[in-house]
């Protein structure tokens, strides 16, 4: 099993809604990542979890709240988002011991539209 | 912030031709990676080259790295329509993987 699974694939939400994006991997990876990608732009790092602890937060607004309940799951809780937050949200994982800079395994992404 | 910039921004070639895209970066690195992204999909890792390596091959892919010039190139030989995608280089900075601006490759059948 070499997959990173993200749900939902598509999400439309209003600015007052609370929703969550989910990511799951069963490859035994101990680092997990959230990236945000706007159209025609490269992915931008948001958060890194290493061994279930938040190790990097790239000054992301508090309306994005990550959570890593266990080594296989990564959530991104969304609240009071703005239309400019509409983007493709990508989850990735990497094997232990790579210090966050080895090969990343990506999910297919969750496309978020904020109305 | 982006660590790397790629050129060209877009490249259109015919099937069977070779495609070359370049990546320049700003700071010293441990390794450089290349990823492919089909439209609106996730990224797929293609190849990793370490800072002490100069060239690496994987199937139809050839990657070079020149650390003195802080640049890398990705060559795709005998391109196919299925190679149509965006290609990103990625470098490590402060234990983070940062992606370059990307090259959009279109291979015409």
Helix content of chain A: under 10%
**Number of helical segments with 4 or more residues of chain B:** 0
Rg of chain B, rounded, reads 13 Å
Greatest interface (CB-CB under 8 A), with counts per chain: A-B, 25 and 22 residues
Structure classification of chain B: mainly beta
H/E element sequence of chain A: EEEEEEEEEEE
Spatial gap, N to C terminus of chain B:
36 Å
Tell me what portion of residues of chain A adopts beta-strand conformation.
Answer: over 45%
Helix content of chain B: under 10%
How many β strands of chain B by DSSP? 11
Uncertain stretches of 5 or more adjacent residues of chain B: none
Average of pLDDT of chain B: 93
What summary fits the major beta sheet of chain B? 6 strands, mixed
Termini separation of chain A (Å)? 36 Å
| Uncertain stretches of 5 or more adjacent residues of chain A | none
What is the averaged pLDDT score of chain A? 93
Structural class of chain A: mainly beta
Give the overall shape of chain A, derived from the CA principal axes: globular
Q: Biggest sheet of chain A, open or closed, and with what strands and sense?
A: 7 strands, mixed
Tally of DSSP helical segments of chain A = 0
Taking Cα atoms only, what radius of gyration of chain A do you get, to the nearest Å?
A: 13 Å
Kindly summarize this structure in a few lines:
With 115 residues, chain A is mainly beta. Chain A is built from no helices and 11 strands. In chain A, the strands form 2 sheets. In chain A, strands 2, 4, 5, 6, 9, 10 and 11 form a 7-stranded mixed sheet that branches. A 4-stranded antiparallel sheet of chain A has the order 1-3-8-7, with no helix packed on it.
